[in-house]
Every structure is written in structure tokens, then in C-alpha cells.
Specification:
- The radius of gyration is 16 Å and the shape is globular.
- It has a 5-stranded parallel beta sheet, sandwiched between helices.
- By secondary structure, the chain is an alpha/beta fold.
- The mean pLDDT is 94.
- Helix 1 crosses helix 6.
- It has 6 helices and 5 strands.
- It has a single domain, classed as 3-Layer(aba) Sandwich (Rossmann fold).
- It is 34% helix and 19% strand.
- Strand 1, helix 1 and strand 2 form a beta-alpha-beta unit.
């Protein structure tokens, strides 16, 4: 693990609404970080990200990103740790998070960026708000998508915390999840 003075956490808020249950979990995780830890927040739904176009087999290379996508890439490369805060939408990733991950395919093919090498060694963590109650296994596809993505990039998988919450603020009643979220980034 990186020393707290050198640690830089990027929180990726993937909900389609602000102040949702996943965000509450992320705030608990960040509040527990040692003093001196740098944190940046990106609300993916608020960014003007272009659609992803797969040109791997036609053009082969991608241009350097511009606009909000360039800023998101800069924050991603700046971070030592990525904390993904996502609600479970239809047993999978929210669309804004899937779009961000799709753009990783482009980043891998931007000449001189060395995206995979620069991502290697970073850590990825997930806090996920579900409405699955006593069926947390329903969130497994979301968790697996992120864990497999981290593995492919040679990132360290820091783990996932699932919290039960449908309506805004519900997750605060899930004391076990909120406690686990507060400890997630400390390991």
C-alpha cells in the first residue's frame, strides 16, 4: 500500500442521481482515510463523454482524448487508488461506468500513453448499493466486471462492499455495510 502522504484516491461516482446510497458509502470510505490523503471526485453522469467507437481493427490507434474525457483520463492516471461508487442497475454496471471502462480500450491504443503500464499497481475498490436485500449474489456481475477489468490492467483488487438501499439514504440503515465501507480503503 502507498503511504498516506503519497496516496491519491479518485472516487468515481457512477449513479444517475447525486447523493445516492453508493455515494454515501463512498463518503464513509473517504472520511476514514488518514489526513494527508489526496482525494478527487468525478461524477461520471455529469461529464460530457463521447460515445465509444471501436476502431481497433480499422484504424488501430486512437487520438489523445479531449474535453471531459481528457480530464477523466488525467485524474485516472493521477490516482494511486480508484474507488468506484455504483448502484446496481439491472444486475450490472451503470451506463456511465460502462462507458468509462469502454474508453479504457481506446486509452490502451493512444500512442505514447502506455495506459496499461501506468495503471498497473494501482488499486481498485468498489462500494455498491443494491436493492437485492437478502440476495447479494445478484450484484456479482457488477463486481466481477470491475474485478476482471482490474486484473486485466494488473491493478490490485482492493475488494467490494455491498450495501442494501433502494430509496435515498436507505443504506445508512445497513450498519454492517457502512462500517465495512469505512474500513475498505484502510487495508
Amino acid at each position: 500500500m502507498t503511504d498516506s502522504a503519497d496516496r491519491r484516491v479518485l472516487v468515481l461516482l457512477a449513479s444517475a442521481r447525486g447523493d445516492g446510497n453508493a455515494e454515501l458509502m463512498a463518503r464513509a470510505a473517504v472520511a476514514a482515510l488518514p489526513t494527508g490523503t489526496e482525494v478527487r471526485w468525478q461524477r461520471l453522469a455529469g461529464l460530457a463523454l463521447p460515445p465509444f467507437e471501436d476502431i481497433r481493427h480499422s484504424v488501430g490507434q486512437y487520438p489523445a482524448p479531449t474535453g471531459d474525457l481528457a480530464g477523466l483520463l488525467d485524474d485516472t492516471l493521477w490516482a494511486t487508488d480508484l474507488l468506484v461508487a455504483a448502484p446496481l442497475y439491472w444486475y450490472s454496471l451503470p451506463a456511465s461506468l460502462k462507458l468509462y471502462l469502454d474508453h479504457w480500450s481506446a486509452f490502451l491504443r493512444v500512442p505514447g500513453l502506455d495506459f496499461r503500464a501506468r495503471m498497473g499497481g494501482k488499486a481498485m475498490y468498489v462500494v455498491c448499493a443494491t436493492s437485492s436485500g437478502d440476495e447479494p449474489h445478484l450484484a456479482q456481475p457488477l463486481v466481477d466486471s470491475l474485478r476482471f477489468s482490474a486484473d486485466y490492467m494488473k491493478m490490485r483488487w482492493g475488494g467490494a462492499v455491498l450495501g442494501d438501499g433502494t430509496r435515498p439514504g436507505d443504506v445508512l440503515k445497513d450498519e454492517a455495510a457502512m462500517t465495512a465501507a469505512a474500513r475498505l480503503l484502510l487495508v
